[in-house]
Each structure stands twice: as structure tokens, then as C-alpha cells.
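Our preliminary data section would be incomplete without showing what the modeling component actually yields. Below, a chain of 129 amino acids is followed by its predicted structure, encoded as C-alpha cells that our downstream tools consume directly.
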Amino acid sequence: MTRDHTRSTNTDRLIADAVRQRQARESGYREQALKIYPWICGRCSREFTHQNLRELTVHHRDHNHDNNPLDGSNWELLCLYCHDNEHSRQLDAEAARQAGVRAPASADRPPATAQPFANLRDLLKNRQQ
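Predicted structure:
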């Protein structure tokens, strides 16, 4: 009888530990983000399933890992590759700033002059005839 009681106590303890660990995981920002957002990379639109969900990461838009609002407004889901690219771009921009390289302002760029749909009306008219 004591053996069965000990086995039951151990099982109860294991179940309670598993429940606590699940609750701790679900309270984390990754699990919250996975509940809020569709399992799609916000950059490349790659779709994820339970089998490859480990490759989907949570990116903090303001790069502050302590800023985790419950509504998820500081998060976006990115695949490993796009997440790495995002952080690399951030590091490159910071290194350029420290080196004194200034990013061109939008006023320095010439305005776009291409008109890809300029003759679309004529093409559609010809197609209807």
C-alpha cells in the first residue's frame, strides 16, 4: 500500500510540476504572441505549423525585450532568417552612425518618375475591342 501511495504521490508531483511549467511558458511573451498573431513571418510571409514552429521567433519592434505589452503591440513574428536580418540591419545602422556615416534623407533623393501604369487604360481598351 505504501508503494502505491508513494507512486501516486510522485505522479501527482510530476503532474503539478508539468502544469506549473506550462503556465509559466504560456505567461511568456512568445506564447502570448503565438496566441495573438497568425503563424506567418511578418517579412517573408512564410507559413508555420506545429512541426516547424520553433523556427518562428518574436521580434521586439523597439528592440526592448522588457517592453512586452499584453496587446502584443511591440511584437511581430519573424522566421529565424528574417529576424537575423532585422538585427543585422540594426547593427549595421548603429555602426554606420558611430562611424559618422549619415543615411540619405528623403529630401536628398530625387522623386520617382516612373509611371508603370501610364498606358494601362489604352491596353485595356484595346483588349476589350
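The beta strands are 56-60, 75-79. The first strand starts at residue 56 and ends at 60. Preliminary results of this kind motivate Aim 1 of the renewal.
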